[in-house]
From TrEMBL:
NCBIfam families listed in its UniProt record: dcm
Keywords linked to the UniProt accession: Methyltransferase, Restriction system, S-adenosyl-L-methionine, Transferase
Family the UniProt entry places it in: Belongs to the class I-like SAM-binding methyltransferase superfamily. C5-methyltransferase family.
Enzyme Commission number: 2.1.1.37
Species of provenance: Helicobacter pylori
InterPro entries with a match to the protein in the record: C5-MTase, C5_MeTfrase, SAM-dependent_MTases_sf
The name this protein goes by in its record: DNA (cytosine-5-)-methyltransferase
Amino acid sequence: MKVGSLFAGIGGFECAFLQAGFEIGWANELDKDACNTYRANFKHKLLEQDIKDLNPNELEDVGLISAGFPCQAFSIAGLQKGLNDERGAIVMEMFRIIQAKKPQVLLLENVKNLVSHNKGETLKFILETLKNLGYFIHYKILNTYEYST
C-alpha cells in the first residue's frame, strides 16, 4: 500500500512504514530543519510547505494517510487552547486533504491529553468529522515504551 504523510516531521512514521513493506508516495512538512533531516534519510517526494497551501489535486493517490498533527494546543505542557489555537485548528486543513484524497486508511497521532481536552469535546469533534467523511474510527492510547524498533 502506498502512504502519504501530513506533518511528517523528520520521518518517524515513514521509517516504520518502510520497514513494514509500505511504499511512500509523498510527505508534507513545514519546518525547515525537520525537512533537512527528512531529506537526509529519504528519497521520495517531500513537499516543504504549509499544509494550507497543499493542493490535493497535485498529490498522488494513496491508500493510507498518516498525520502526527501539532500537539501544542492539546498538550498539558501548553496553554490547551485546542481548536481555538492556530496550531490546533490546523486539523481542518488535515480534514480538507483527507476529504479530497479519500484514502482507505488513516493513522493519526497526537498526545494523550487529546482524549480529555475540553472535557472530551475536542476528540468528539475530530471523531465526528472523520465519521462524516466515511471513516470507521478506532482510537487507543499507546505507551511507546511498550514497543521496540
